[in-house]
Amino acid sequence: MVSKEVEIALHPGLQARPAAEFVQKANRFVSHIFIEQGEKRINGKSIMGLMSLALSKGDHITIIADGTDEETAIDELVGFVTEKEE
Asked: Where on the tree of life does the source sit, at the highest rank (predicted)?
């Protein structure tokens, strides 16, 4: 299991379209993907779970991957949420 705490740099955060993109990326991996914020932990492959967190730019989350491709999954998903828009 691999995890990384990150600050969301996407504007407006993981709302609607970016949340759907995150879930699509997460579903390409065999590993189980989770997102934690505070006491909440959701399945990173679930659009409803992700939307329930209402994550905005500047929020801190922990992305967790557990499985055979966990390193690759963490790298790609962390890169996605920390990508600064120009």
From this structure: Bacteria
